[in-house]
């Protein structure tokens, strides 16, 4: 597995699993029915943001991440990042590899901290992964997410200094 | 004092204190040097967002607030709001009146919660005001704000159910 900057040519390989994950409505606050153009607009970043892909030896896209400033002005040293792994490539360490890469890049880009705004509390694998990468749950928005199966559940805000 | 929906005609009365507050760099994460068009774009909301003004008997604008969804999709029931009070009209209860009005409107618009993303911890009057209106500090982003006088200070995330 290799992680590199995404180009516009990668989007057609990202969109199928992006759409599947968003349509499930279990882990993202994106509109579940967003169309491809809206998805591209949310995911493919312009500088100073970055979009990355994890690819295997054949060049198949296994997952993707995006990162950029989470606040402006005097809070612009806080980065944000989001991650999508193709469900067909789950449990292979793709999310962890993307997370570690994004943390390195964020330090390199001069950020001092990273914040995740909305980690669904029932997404326990993601919560555990981010904790293992040094993030703390600094707060929870009670009833912040309407889960299609579990009803109103919390949204964790996760954070770490870099 | 009366609170009403802002129109485009109110912007010229908002911009002077908006600019002063943003340029001070003590309470907002907006770029300190933003120009009038960028300020208008950040402040004057399109539906489902709202922008409000507090005006006195003469129609003078004393302060303003904006509100709208803070998340999308299955988190879209969380509202966000921001407040600016003309420093020349401070300590007259304008912020509190705007806050109470925004909470009423948010309930009326069907939101279930309200979240403030970045309350600078040294802005103790704002923190006390929001606490008195039922908000809790659910988390703090340590060193999340580079204060021009105090250096890196925390950014509180404040939240309440409606």
UniProtKB/TrEMBL annotation, chains A, B:
The keyword Protease does not apply. Transmembrane segments: none annotated. The keyword Transferase applies. Keywords: Transferase. InterPro entries: Acyl_CoA_acyltransferase, GNAT_dom, Mito_N-acetyltransferase. Gene3D superfamilies: 3.40.630.30. SUPFAM superfamilies: Acyl-CoA N-acyltransferases (Nat). GO terms for molecular function: acyltransferase activity, transferring groups other than amino-acyl groups. It comes from the Bacteria. Residues 1-162 form the N-acetyltransferase domain. It holds the Pfam family Acetyltransf_1. This is N-acetyltransferase.
């Amino acid at each position: 597995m290799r992680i590199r900057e995404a180009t516009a040519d990668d989007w057609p390989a990202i969109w199928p699993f992006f759409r599947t994950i968003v349509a499930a409505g279990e882990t993202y606050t994106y509109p579940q029915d967003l169309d491809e153009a809206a998805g591209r607009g949310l995911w493919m970043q312009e500088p100073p943001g970055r979009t990355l892909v994890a690819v295997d030896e054949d060049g198949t896209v296994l997952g993707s991440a995006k990162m950029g400033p989470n606040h402006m002005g005097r809070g612009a040293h806080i980065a944000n990042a989001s991650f999508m792994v193709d469900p067909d490539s789950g449990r292979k360490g793709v999310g962890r590899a993307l997370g570690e890469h994004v943390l390195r890049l964020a330090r390199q880009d001069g950020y001092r901290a990273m914040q995740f705004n909305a980690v669904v509390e029932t997404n326990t694998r993601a919560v555990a992964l981010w904790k293992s990468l040094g993030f703390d749950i600094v707060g929870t928005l009670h009833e912040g997410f309407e889960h299609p199966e579990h009803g109103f559940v919390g949204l964790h805000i996760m954070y770490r200094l870099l």
